[in-house]
């Protein structure tokens, strides 16, 4: 994992977890750390692993973006919602949210 760079997380040339699974609306959404450290096994999330030598080949990795979210939130000390809010608003995406709790009834969720 020491060989993994931010660029590799973004261009899908590191880590595993092909797909990011959904979480039922009636339960607490696990934190990014819980999703990558094996604490969310009941939702299908195993410990995130380095499946191939970092940077060697492309293979879609939703897990890389979960790690990116964890890093951003840890470094900023804020939620991904707070970190991205001004960008999303300026892009005209005022209804976009990362939070199931604050979404309007009938909202569709994609993970």
Automatic annotation (TrEMBL):
- Stretches assigned to the Beta-lactamase-related domain: 2-104
Task: Show which residues constitute the signal peptide.
Answer: none
Which Pfam families is this protein grouped with?
Answer: Beta-lactamase
> InterPro entries in the record, alphabetically?
Beta-lactam-related, Beta-lactam/transpept-like
Q: What is this protein called?
A: Beta-lactamase-related domain-containing protein
Q: What organism does the record attribute this protein to?
A: Spumella elongata
């Amino acid at each position: 994992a020491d060989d993994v760079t931010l660029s590799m997380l973004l261009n899908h040339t590191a880590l595993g977890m092909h797909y990011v699974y959904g979480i039922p609306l009636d339960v607490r959404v696990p934190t990014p750390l819980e999703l990558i450290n094996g604490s969310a096994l009941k939702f299908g999330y195993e410990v995130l692993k380095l499946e191939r030598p970092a940077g060697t080949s492309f293979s879609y990795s939703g897990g890389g973006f979960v790690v990116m979210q964890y890093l951003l939130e840890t470094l900023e000390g804020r939620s991904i919602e707070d970190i991205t809010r001004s960008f999303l608003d300026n892009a005209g995406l005022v209804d976009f949210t990362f939070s199931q709790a604050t979404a309007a009834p009938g909202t569709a969720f994609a993970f």
